[in-house]
Amino acid sequence: MSATDSTAGASGSGGSTQGASGSSGDAPEQPDTSTYECNICLDTARDAVISHCGHLFCWPCLHQWLETRPNRQVCPVCKAGISKDKVIPLYGRGSTDQKDPRDKVPPRPQGLRTEPENNANFPGFGFGEGGFQFGIGAFPFGFFATTFNFNNGRPPPPGPGTQQHGEEQFLSKVFLWVAMMCVVWLLIS
Amino acid sequence: MANIAVARIKREFKEVVKSEEVAKCHIKVELVDDSFTSLRGEILGPPDTPYEGGTFILDIRIPETYPFNPPKVQFLTKIWHPNISSVTGAICLDILKDQWAAAMTLRTVLLSLQALLAAPEPDDPQDAVVARQYKETSDIFSQTARHWASNYASAPHREPVMDDKVAQLKNMGFDEHKARVALSTHNWDIEQAMENILS
Ligand SMILES: [Zn+2]
Ligand SMILES: [Zn+2]
C-alpha cells in the first residue's frame, strides 16, 4: 500500500473517476518508508497527526487543507468527515514533543486522555463525543458519575484547604443531595 | 519560504516516472521548463473506446497552493468528448473542481482523465453539442470521436467516409478544422455544415 495513493474516487458530478484508483501496490521496492509519509506533502510526517479513518498527515499540512475548505472538511485520502477535534497527535520516541506542541503555529490538537476506570462502571453513560447521555433509570448514577468526574479529570484536584477545593467539596455535597432527592422522589412516585 | 507545491511535484515526478502505467506507456508527465509549475501530460486512449490508441497531450498548470487546490488541466490535443470542450480543451471533471482532495496526485489525475475517456458523463457536459450527439445518436458520436482521434491524436482506426467529407469541403477552399467542426456539429450533413460555415 503506497500511502501516496489516493483511492478517493469521487463519484458524482462531472465525470466518472472510477478506475482512477488504479493499482495501489505498484511501488514494490523500498521497505515501507512510505507508510509514515504524510498523505499531503508526501514527505515524512512532522508533527504527525492521524485521523479517525487512520490516515496520517503532518499537522501543518492537514491544518492548511482544513483552512482551504472550511465548508467541506473531509479526509484528503478517503473523504471521510474530519475536523480539528477529531485527529489524534502521534508522539514517537524522541519526537520533538517534549515541548508543548501548542507553541508551534498552527497549534497541534492535544491528545485525548480518558480515565480508564470510569468507562466500565456506568454502562449507558456515554463518553464518546462529549455529549453525556443517560437513560431515565440510570439518571442518578449518571449524575454521580459527572460529579466524580470533576475530580478524576485532567486538571489535578486542587490541594485541600484551597478555596477551590472547598467549593468543589461543597458542590459535590449539593449534587449528592440533589441526587438523593431524586431517588427519594422516584421511590415515592 | 520553500514552496510546498514545487517540493511535492518533484516527489510526484519520481512516483509517476516509476509507476506501472508509465512502463506500459499509458500515462506520462514531462517538465515544460525548470519551474515545476508548468507540465505536459500525456495519456493513451483506452482500449474499446473511440479514443483507442490515440495519444492525448495535456497542459498542466500547478497553482502555488497545490496540493491544497487542484492543478489546472486542459487538453491540447483536439478531442470530441461530452466532458471536454471541442474548442478550448477545457475539462469538466469533479476532481479537478470541488471534489479535489490534497492526497491526489498527478498520477491520479491522469488516470481519472483516462477513465473519463472510457466513461463520459453526458449529464454534466462541458460541450453541449457533443453531449447531445452522444445521447441522441451514439453511433455518429463514436464515429466522430474516432475520426477526431485519428486526425489529431494519431489513433490507428480511421473513419474513411468522414475523412472524405472533410476533404471535399477542404477542396472547396474551407479551412480543414472548421470544416470538421461544422460537419461534426451537424451530424455529417454536408449542406448544413456549409451553411453553418458561411453564415
Ligand atoms: Zn505533510
Ligand atoms: Zn481518511
TrEMBL record, chain A:
Domain RING-type, chain residue ranges per copy: 38-79
GO CC, any one term: endoplasmic reticulum
Disordered: where is this region?
1-31, 90-119
Q: Which UniProt keywords apply?
A: Membrane, Metal-binding, Transferase, Ubl conjugation pathway, Zinc, Zinc-finger
Name its GO BP terms in alphabetical order.
protein ubiquitination; ubiquitin-dependent protein catabolic process
Q: What parts of the sequence cross the membrane?
A: none
**Protein localization:** Endomembrane system
Family matches, as InterPro entries:
RNF5/RNF185-like, Znf_C3HC4_RING-type, Znf_RING, Znf_RING/FYVE/PHD, Znf_RING_CS
Q: Where is the composition biased (Basic and acidic residues)?
A: 96-106
Q: Does the keyword Cell wall biogenesis/degradation apply?
A: no
* Record field: compositional bias (Low complexity): 1-10, 18-27
One molecular function GO term is:
zinc ion binding
The name on file for this protein is RING-type E3 ubiquitin transferase
UniProtKB/TrEMBL annotation, chain B:
Q: What is its EC number?
A: 2.3.2.23
Q: What superkingdom does the record give?
A: Eukaryota
One GO molecular function term of this record is:
ubiquitin conjugating enzyme activity
| Residue intervals of the UBC core domain | 4-154
Q: Which UniProt keywords apply?
A: ATP-binding, Nucleotide-binding, Transferase, Ubl conjugation pathway
Q: Which Pfam families does its entry note? A: UBA (PF00627), UQ_con (PF00179)
Q: Active-site residues?
A: 92 (glycyl thioester intermediate)
Residues of the UBA domain: 161-199
Query: InterPro entries from the entry?
Result: UBA, UBA-like_sf, UBC, UBCD4_UBA, UBQ-conjugating_AS, UBQ-conjugating_enzyme/RWD
SMART domains xrefs: UBA (SM00165), UBCc (SM00212)
Per the record, the similarity remark reads: Belongs to the ubiquitin-conjugating enzyme family.
Its name, as the record gives it, is E2 ubiquitin-conjugating enzyme
Instruction: List the top taxonomic levels of the source.
Output: Eukaryota, Metazoa, Spiralia, Lophotrochozoa, Annelida
